[in-house]
Amino acid sequence: MPSQSFAPHECLDVHEIIGFKTICAEKAQVYLSQVNSTELRSLIQQDLQVSRQHLQQFQQIFGQ
Fold first, then answer.
1. CA 7 vs CA 4, 14, 34, 46: distances in Å
2. Which residues of 29-59 are buried (b: 16+ CB within 10 A; e: fewer)?
3. How far apart are CA 24 and CA 63, in angstroms?
4. Which stretches of the chain score pLDDT less than 50?
5. What are the C-alpha distances in Å from 20 to residues 37, 38, 43?
6. CA 28, CA 47: separation in Å to the nearest integer?
7. What is the spatial distance between Cα 13 and Cα 21, in angstroms, rounded to a whole number?
8. Less CB within 10 Å around the terminal CB: N or C of the chain?
9. CA distance 30 to 24
10. Which pLDDT score is estimated for 3?
11. DSSP string for 9-52
């Protein structure tokens, strides 16, 4: 991937998104241990997997 330059406001926005997605993933992990419904458990697991993929993509883009 070519070297990219980001504007300061873009970096700030992405930093906020990463923080939000991290907190959401942590909460989902906690909820997962408390859920009895298999359907709800499945939805939370899917959400957690997607959130982790998004965080990995942000890390790849920003090289953190």
1. 10, 11, 41, 32
2. eeeeeeeeeeeeeeebeeebeebeeebeeee
3. 22
4. 1-2
5. 26, 26, 19
6. 8
7. 12
8. N
9. 10
10. 53
11. HHHHHHHHHHHHHHHHHHHHHHHHHH---HHHHHHHHHHHHHHH
Are the C-beta atoms of residues 49 and 32 closer than 8 Å to each other?
no
Answer whether 59's CB lies under 8 Å from 15's CB.
no
Q: What is the pLDDT of residue 58?
A: 87
Q: Give the per-residue pLDDT at 5.
A: 82
Structure tokens at 51: 């959130």
Residues 14-23: tens digit of each pLDDT: 889 999 999 9
